[in-house]
């Protein structure tokens, strides 16, 4: 395991999203916009600007 | 980050990683999508139907993008313009009732699962249905289950019932539905509506990865039928491999906390352009404060390396 991928969804007005799969350095995401319309979006995977420290999931140990 | 412990057991490479939450964040998404389809359209009939829950897509080798949408397959060109729609509701030729998965194999051939018709359909590169055959006792074909040699990987349970540790076989099928070989045996944990942990199959070249979310491990098989590796993580608190990132979960939590009425009935319907529309079960559960655990997906970054998404 070499690290984690941060997914901070960058689009405003998105109701919900789900990771559907991965390609070569890209991620396929299904999302609903503010109108409730569905999108399939491919986002590029980039190196994080600087390796971030691990952060716990709220509610988990 | 703790270095992985790698050992060999009877020819099987076992990699014991540290806890996933201890791993540094080394990757991030770009600010904008490189490609996107969907959204509101002039005609509601051409919009994606998101209520079915299996909307998914795959990129083709020439830049086109194919999307399964209940009983249709949308084809888009590399500039996200819709160029063809295949299928309608029914059980006849070029008809589907409920598409749940797709994958791409050699020559941009698509394999789609039509669960309500109980069959798999093979779609040629031009979008024509070239063959269908019954799924039989096949439990699932995931959206990463095609191999590059014109075959696909399916999971078939061994025996009946819903035993806790029911076993299944990973089978490699040819595109005519005949069996090429057995890849290996796996444990099929019952699907939980709460955790949503389900078996997940991914392929890379001639490797087959079986994600066992309940056990927190990934089995690596050669397509010809031998176990070559096991990848594990030592994660305390939650053993589940999930699709939701830490950051995304934080955003979700914030959003939930902003909603005062959190119960199972809290979000049954929403308004869109004055019309109510349903949201998926998992979305309703998440909005109502349940922490859902979706099946994990794997990003393959090398012949023996994958990255799970949380």
Task: Provide a quick synopsis of the model.
The complex is a heterodimer of chains A (61) and B (310). Helices cover 0% and strands 54% of the residues of chain A.
Description of the structure:
The complex is a heterodimer of chains A (61) and B (310). With 61 residues, chain A is mainly beta. Chain A has strands at residues 4-6, 16-23, 26-32, 38-52. In chain A, strand 3 (26-32) and strand 4 form a beta hairpin. The two termini of chain A are 21 Å apart. Chain B has 310 residues and is mainly β. Chain B has helices at residues 246-257, 281-287, and strands at 5-9, 12-17, 25-29, 35-38, 56-59, 65-69, 72-76, 82-86, 99-105, 109-114, 119-123, 129-134, 151-157, 166-174, 179-188, 200-204, 207-212, 217-222, 226-233, 269-272, 275-278, 298-302, 305-308. In chain B, strands 1-2-19-18-17-16 form a six-stranded mixed beta sheet, with no helix packed on it. A four-stranded antiparallel beta sheet of chain B has the order 5-6-7-8, with no helix packed on it. In chain B, strands 9-10-11-12 form a four-stranded antiparallel beta sheet, with no helix packed on it. In chain B, a hairpin with a 2-residue loop joins strand 1 (5-9) and strand 2. Residues 236-310 of chain B have low confidence and may be disordered. Chains A and B meet through strand 1, strand 2, strand 3 and strand 4 of A and strand 3, strand 4, strand 5, helix 1 and helix 2 of B. Strand 1 of chain A pairs parallel with strand 3 of chain B.
């Amino acid at each position: 395991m070499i690290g984690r991928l941060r997914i901070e969804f960058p689009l405003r007005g998105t109701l919900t999203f789900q990771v559907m799969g991965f390609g070569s350095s890209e991620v396929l995401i299904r999302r609903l916009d503010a109108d409730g319309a569905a999108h399939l979006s491919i986002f590029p995977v980039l190196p994080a600007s600087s390796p971030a420290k691990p952060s716990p999931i709220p509610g988990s140990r | 980050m703790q270095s992985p412990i790698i050992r060999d057991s009877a020819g099987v490479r076992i990699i014991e990683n540290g806890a996933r939450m201890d791993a540094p964040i080394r990757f991030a998404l770009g600010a904008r999508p490189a490609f996107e389809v969907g959204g509101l359209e002039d005609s509601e009939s051409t919009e994606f139907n998101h209520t079915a829950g299996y909307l998914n897509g795959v990129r083709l080798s020439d830049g086109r993008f194919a999307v399964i949408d209940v009983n249709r397959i949308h084809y888009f060109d590399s500039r996200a313009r819709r160029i063809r729609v295949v299928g309608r509701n029914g059980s006849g030729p070029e008809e589907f009732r409920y598409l749940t998965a797709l994958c791409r194999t050699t020559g941009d051939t698509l394999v789609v699962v039509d669960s309500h018709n109980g069959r798999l359909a093979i779609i040629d590169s031009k979008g024509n249905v070239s063959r269908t055959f019954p799924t039989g006792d096949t439990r699932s074909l995931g959206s990463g289950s095609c191999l590059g040699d014109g075959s696909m990987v399916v999971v078939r349970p061994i025996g009946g019932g819903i035993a806790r540790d029911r076993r299944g076989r990973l089978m490699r099928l040819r595109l005519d539905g005949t069996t090429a070989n057995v890849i290996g045996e796996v444990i099929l944990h019952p699907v939980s509506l709460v955790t949503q942990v389900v078996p997940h199959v991914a392929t890379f070249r001639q490797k087959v990865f079986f994600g066992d979310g309940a056990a927190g491990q990934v089995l690596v098989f050669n397509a010809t039928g031998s176990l070559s590796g096991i990848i594990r993580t030592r994660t305390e608190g939650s053993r589940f491999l999930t699709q939701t990132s830490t950051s995304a979960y934080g955003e979700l939590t914030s959003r939930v906390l902003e909603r005062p009425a959190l119960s199972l009935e809290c979000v049954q319907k929403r308004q869109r352009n004055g019309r109510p529309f349903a949201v998926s079960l998992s979305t309703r559960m998440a909005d109502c404060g349940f922490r859902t655990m979706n099946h994990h997906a794997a990003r393959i970054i090398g012949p023996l390396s994958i990255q799970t998404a949380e």
